[in-house]
Amino acid sequence: MGKKQSLHAYIKEELIERIKTNVYKIGEQFPTEHDICEEFNVSRTTVRIALSQLVQEGYLIRQRGKGSFVAEPKVNQTLSHTEDRFNQQLKAQGKQGKIILKKLEVVPARGSKQERFNLTENDPIQKIKRIRLANEEVTQYEIAYVPWRVAPGLKKEQLEASLYSTLKDTYDISIHKTTETLEITLADKDVSNYLQCEIGQPCFYIETVAEDDTGRVIEFSRSYFRGDKTSFKVERFYDQ
C-alpha cells in the first residue's frame, strides 16, 4: 500500500509539473492511462489513482467518450488587501470577473454576531450572499455581514461591485486591517448548490474580519472557494 501511494504521488507530481510548464497545453488531450502506464512502467490502478486526483484537483477535465483534457489554470488569488482585489487579480490573469448578489436580508444581532460587532441585541445587520465568477465559472460563494449602522441600505448594484470600494466612496469608511483564517472544508448541500459542485468536494474556507483604523469591526464574512478552480498565493516582505 505504501509503495502504491508513493508511486501514484510521484506520477501525479510529475504530470502536474508538465502541465505547469506547458509540456501539456491548455485544452490539449491528455495521454491515456495505457500511455502513462508504459512510460512509468506501473500498473493501471496506480495511474488511475493519479489521474483521478488530477481531475479532483482541477488540473484535468474528463469528457465522456473522449478522454481527459488539460483544464484552464486555476484562479490565483493573493492573500493581501486591495479595495477591489478580486477584479484586479483576475484581470492580471487575463480573466473576466463577475459578482452576482444571490440574497440580501436584514437579520437581528444575536449571539456571536452581536458580540463581534459590539451591537445591542436585535440591532439590524445586513446579511449578504454573493457568488463570484471567473470567465462565467463560479469559483467563490460568500456570506458577508455588515451592520446597518455602518452602511445603511446597501443596494444590489453596490454589492455586485467591490464592497470595500462602496464603503469608502459612499460611506467614507476605509478598511484598515483584515484578518483572514484559511481552512479546508467539504462542500455541504448549501455550498455545493452555490458553487455548482458535488456535495463533499474539497473547498477552501476563509473567514475574514475587516476593521477600520479604530479597530471597529466593519464586516465579517465566510467564503467558500472551489478547490479545483482556485489557488492562493501568500506574499511576505522582509526588512533588509
Automatic annotation (TrEMBL):
Keyword Glycoprotein attributed: no
For molecular function, the Gene Ontology terms on record are:
DNA binding; DNA-binding transcription factor activity
Q: Name the SUPFAM superfamilies on file.
A: Chorismate lyase-like (SSF64288), Winged helix' DNA-binding domain (SSF46785)
| Family matches, as Pfam families | GntR, UTRA
Q: Which residues form the HTH gntR-type domain?
A: 5-73
The answer to whether keyword Transcription regulation applies is yes
Instruction: Identify the species of origin.
Output: Streptohalobacillus salinus
The upper taxonomy is: Bacteria, Bacillati, Bacillota, Bacilli, Bacillales
Q: Which SMART domains match?
A: HTH_GNTR, UTRA
Q: Which InterPro entries match?
A: Bact_HTH_transcr_reg, Chorismate_lyase_/UTRA_dom_sf, Tscrpt_reg_HTH_GntR, UTRA, WH-like_DNA-bd_sf, WH_DNA-bd_sf
- Determine the domain of life of the protein's source: Bacteria
Keywords of the record, alphabetical order, are:
DNA-binding, Transcription, Transcription regulation
Q: Which GO terms describe its biological process?
A: negative regulation of DNA-templated transcription
Q: Which PANTHER family match?
A: MANNOSYL-D-GLYCERATE TRANSPORT/METABOLISM SYSTEM REPRESSOR MNGR-RELATED, MANNOSYL-D-GLYCERATE TRANSPORT_METABOLISM SYSTEM REPRESSOR MNGR-RELATED
Gene3D superfamilies in UniProt: Chorismate lyase-like, Winged helix-like DNA-binding domain superfamily/Winged helix DNA-binding domain
Q: What is this protein called?
A: GntR family transcriptional regulator
Question: What is the annotated signal peptide range for this record?
Answer: none
